[in-house]
Amino acid sequence: MYVAVKGGERAILNSYRMLDDYRRGDRAVPELTLAQVREQMPLAVSRVMAEGSLYDPHLAALAIKQAAGDLIEAVFLLRAYRTTLPRFGYCAPLDTGTMRLQRRISSTFKDVPGGQVLGPTYDYTQRLLDFTLEAERDRAPLPPAQATLDARMPRVTDLLRQESLIEPETVPAGDPAPPDLTREPLALPAARPARLQNLARADEGFLLSMGYSTQRGYGNSHPFAAEIRYGQAEVELFVEELGFAVTIGEVEVTECQMVSQFAGNAQEGPSFTRGYGLVFGYGERKAMSMALADRAMRAAELGEAADAPANDIEFMLYHSDNVEASGFTQHLKLPHYVDFQTNLELLRRLRAERAQAAPAGPEADARPAQDGPQAQEALAS
């Protein structure tokens, strides 16, 4: 806290009022409602839910409004609120194979069983500003879909598995429960379940950069998007009193299955390997980047060279969290008066000792001044 700022607590409280005024903007413009944020900024809501680790579109919209559109601040707000919520239990694993699909594409097979379902996407737009949106007139809604998509479209990876062309999905011995990084600190070495959980909460921009680097020579990766799915998946909770799981709702998720070439080793023959991404909401870029990062961090496990930043598990897991990164960066705004004064005094003393050690006369211009023993000792300390 800026205790040295003139006015102290009163100045800080006034900064809150100024922030509220800045966020509200021109009073002549109608105030933004949470319903508007939730319904008309769904991609921002999806990102905040994914990185905030809390599926609640209403609260995500509230966080976005409170943060004045700063999505990382909104993620921080949502995570902080999440810590106050009671834990009722853990749901059963999501069966994304039975999602109510709104979009499903594959870049590996043109005629994939079930078909390519483009759905809502910017992929085929021309990225030209649409000035008709200035009119603020509602366009006619699409008519209700006449056909229901097959909820059990076969996975592309299953097609490859039938020919033994892709590594099998094996369950670890004993089928241990995955860790809960919201309650347990990250520990290294981290198994893949912990890594995937970390990546699901990770900053989209960081993962995008790291995933991009693997395709630019820093990771030796040539991936293919086997399948990308977006839709609603049922959430089931096992009720001990009943002895079976019951459906308690649905969540909107995006799933990405990446496949990459693998030359094989002494134990395994050549095959495709997997990279996986799953995020809350509609977030293809995040899911794809997560899948690329997941595969890159498996390099050592597969006997490949692991000398790129994206292959370094510790580097990736410790630097991908935007709340942690933002906090550590922004803490530099807090008072560091004592630290800076210490450095300032040291610098003044070193420069003074350097000036005293410099020879007088023309010889001073012939060779650089040498640091004295005291200056060298100060630098070493």
Folded structure, characterized:
- This protein has 381 residues and is of the alpha+beta class.
- The chain has three domains: 9-82, no CATH class; 96-121 and 149-168 and 186-329, no CATH class; 337-380, no CATH class.
- Helix content is 39%, strand content 14%.
- It has helices spanning 9-24, 34-40, 42-52, 57-66, 71-82, 156-162, 192-201, 204-215, 284-296, 313-319, 322-330, 337-357, 363-366, 373-380; strands at residues 100-105, 223-239, 244-262, 271-280.
- A hairpin with a 4-residue loop joins strand 2 (223-239) and strand 3 (244-262).
- The protein starts with 8 loop residues before the first helix and ends with a helix.
- The model is unreliable at 1-5 (pLDDT under 50).
Task: Provide a count of the helices.
Answer: 14
**What share of the residues lie within helices?**
25-40%
> Which geometry do the CA atoms define?
globular
Strand content: 5-15%
Number of strands: 4
- Separation, N- and C-terminal Cα atoms: 30 Å
Radius of gyration: 27 Å
Strand order in the sheet with the most strands = 1-2-3-4
Category from helices, strands and their pairing: alpha+beta
- Overall tally of domains: 3
Rounded mean pLDDT score:
88
Low-confidence stretches: 1-5
In N-to-C order, the SSE pattern is HHHHHEHHHEEEHHHHHH
Characterize the largest beta sheet: strand count, sense, and whether it forms a barrel: 4 strands, antiparallel
Write the layout of secondary structure elements.
Layout: H1 9-24, H2 34-40, H3 42-52, H4 57-66, H5 71-82, E1 100-105, H6 156-162, H7 192-201, H8 204-215, E2 223-239, E3 244-262, E4 271-280, H9 284-296, H10 313-319, H11 322-330, H12 337-357, H13 363-366, H14 373-380
Antiparallel strand pairs: 1-2, 2-3, 3-4
Helix pairs in contact: 2-4, 3-4, 3-5, 4-5, 7-9, 8-9, 12-14
